Amino acid sequence: MQMDGAVAVLTLNAPARMNALSHEMLVALAEALDDMVLSDARSVVITGAGNAFCAGADLQSVDPNTDSLADLGATFDLYYRPLVDRLRDYPLPTVAAVNGVAAGFGMSLVMMCDLTVMADDSYMAAAFARIGLVPDGGWSYLVPRLIGKSRALEMALLAEGLPAKTAQDWGLVNRLVPANQALAEGMALAERLAEGPASLTGIRRLVWHGLDSTWDEQLDAEAEAQAEAGHTVDFGEGVTAFQAKRPPKFLGY
User: Fold this and answer.
1) Residue 113 and residue 96 in contact, taking contact as beta carbons nearer than 8 Å
2) Which of 26, 43, 70, 194 would you label with 202, given CA atoms 20 to 30 Å apart?
């Protein structure tokens, strides 16, 4: 983890393996996210070193002769699920800056971020079927909701690469940028988020909550979040700035 002003940059750093995630890396990721909350960070960028974002799980340590599906399920619960649960309920806005491939759990990791910037020569892949497994990391929950059942099944069953432009057209990507510019654009977005109000936490929580809520549940959640936002210093600053016709200077609390 590195700090750039109020932006925390988390880089997956195993370029020789296309940043495939070992168990040790997953634990380190979760710990780094916890550290960011305790730091002065107000937004987070997740990116990959080298020519890939993340090729998914590190399969070099998997023995197909001894690792059963039950074992892999336990591994998911132990290493992968805590990470995606943490990202879902994370208090800071997150930006994925995608260069190269985001495959398997690497794609799931991108989907867990709030905003995604992708280089136009990059691609995503739900590559699970290529090794005889099923989507995980929240993929089967999020992707059908974002792109519909038919497209989600096409991605998961055929396990083909999805070019960046198609990913944007389908609503999986916020912004496309030229090759090698994903991190720069991701940082620019994260800097804007870092200047935002404390209510950004409530905004992302409401959107996640709304994926499953009934109408009444969501309106109740909005009322609760609005009450919290109304007690922040940033709300007072926002109203004062609006009345004075000047840009607000939010403090993040």
Assistant:
1) yes
2) 26
Helices (H) and strands (E) in the chain, counts: 11, 9
> Nearest 5°: CA angle at 32, between 30 and 37?
100
Residues 6+ apart with CB under 8 A from 63: none
Show the domains of the chain with their CATH numbers: 2-194 (3.90.226.10), 199-244 (no CATH)
Give the three-class secondary structure for 18.
coil
Neighbours of 32 (CB within 10 A): 15
Q: Which runs of consecutive H residues, i.e. helices, occur in the chain?
A: 23-38, 69-75, 81-88, 105-111, 139-147, 149-158, 164-169, 182-194, 199-210, 215-230, 233-244
C-alpha angle 181/198/211, rounded to 5°? Answer: 75
Task: State the pTM of this model.
Answer: 0.92
What are 211-233's pLDDT values in tens digits? 999 999 999 999 999 999 999 99
Q: Quick one: pLDDT band at residue 72, thresholds 50, 70, 90?
A: confident
